[in-house]
Predict the 3D structure of the following.
Amino acid sequence: MLMKKDWFQYTLLILVLVAGVYLYRLYPGSLQRFYIVCATSILYVAWGIYYHLMHERLQLWIVTEYLLMASLVIAFFAFSLKLG
C-alpha cells in the first residue's frame, strides 16, 4: 500500500500545511498573511516535486499542476486579503 510506504512524506506535507494555517491565524496583518500563503504554497510545490522525483515519475504536467494549484491559492488570497 502506497500510504504505508510514504507515511513520512505525507506527514511532512500535513505538517507544512498545518503550520501554514497556524501562522496565518497567528498574524493579523494582510501582508504577513500573504507572505505566509506564498511560503506555504512554495513549500507545497517543492514537496510535490520532491515526492514525484523520489518515485521516478516526475513529468512536466505534474510540475505544472502543482504550480497552477499554488498560483490559484495565492491569487485567491491576494484578492481576499485586500492588499494595499
Notes: The first helix runs from residue 2 to 5. Residues 23-84 form one domain. The two ends are 48 Å apart (CA to CA). The CA atoms of residues 53 and 82 lie 37 Å apart.
